[in-house]
Specification:
The protein is mostly helical and 91 residues long. Helix content is 93%, strand content 0%. The chain has one domain. Keywords: Coiled coil.
Length: 91
């Protein structure tokens, strides 16, 4: 917190101003580019994580749909077998 007190008194502001006005424009541009690249990498990483999460959710939904289809198919098969048994019983 000592740095905050120094910043609050204005002692660090001349240092920042000196760096800003004393650096060649190429150095300032390089710092900005590095900062933008870092932000872009962070955003891309975040989007990649979100993409992976969404893919997992899609796979879960697909698996759920498949299970529902299997249940429907089995129910249909049970109904067919019941009818077949009733037909055998009547003969």
């Amino acid at each position: 917190m000592a740095w905050f007190a120094t910043y609050a008194r204005g002692a660090l502001i001349p240092d920042i101003a000196r760096q800003l006005y004393g650096s060649p424009s190429e150095v300032l541009i390089e710092k900005v580019v590095k900062s933008l690249l870092w932000d872009a990498c962070r955003i891309i990483s975040s989007l990649g994580d979100k993409n992976a999460e969404l893919r997992c959710q899609i796979e879960e939904l697909k698996a759920g749909t498949t299970a529902e289809q299997q249940v429907a198919n089995l129910e249909w098969e049970v109904a067919r077998l019941k009818l077949e048994l009733e037909g055998v019983g009547q003969q």
